[in-house]
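Sanity check

After download, print the first record. It should look like this:
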Amino acid sequence: MESVTVGGLSIGTGRPKLIVPITAESKAELLQAAQAVRHSPAQLAEWRLDRFEPVTRKESLLDAAQALCAALGDLPVLATYRTVKEGGGGVISETQYAALIETLADSGLVDLIDIELFTGEDFVRREISYCHEKGVKVILSSHDFARTPPKEEMTARLRRMEALGADIAKLAVMPQTPEDVLTLLSATGEVSATAARPVVTMSMGRLGAVSRIAGEVFGSALTFGAVGQSSAPGQLEAAALAKALSLLSPEENA
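Expected structure tokens:
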């Protein structure tokens, strides 16, 4: 597997890298949250733009992005606009979504951009190409908040993301039974063993919490932890998650 490097951080080697979401609605809240994240064990910050009120106002968006980067210091930034159908609060049109991705890619202020797989293959190919032309890496993502699909469907989805050009493939599913968690972990191990690029998976909710700390064993390259408000069901507090990761992985492999 070829690792992905952003801001000097290698994703896909050693223990899973810890990413903390910021879910602020205003610039003031954004900067306050950024300070908390900067002083946490976070190795990356995720800016959840679907929670940010002026997201469609380009000037305000770029002003906030610049201020966020300054507040975060050296932490790499993942920009994510999560739509309602994928578990977020986003309701903008496809045209607005594309404009947002391209504005962020043009800005030089973010290291990674999340794009949702089910937006459609033409859209995905076009926007990944645009981001890559600007030197920005892409996480292609898919979420299922109702169920854990069969293993074959999950492995196919992850492999499709790689085939479409994703730098990192991300899949999050909701378990109904402990066996669902095992299915997700098995799918992760199978795909990560042959994938050319890193994969990120998680089983959500309390039942799936083990998947957030076992990435190095099964091949998930990132894990999401919370500082303050969480952005998805089952996220563990970042400091506790960092401690759990350190217990499972020797320091020299970090």
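If your output differs, re-run the checksum step. Summary of this record's structure: The chain is about 40% helix and 20% strand.
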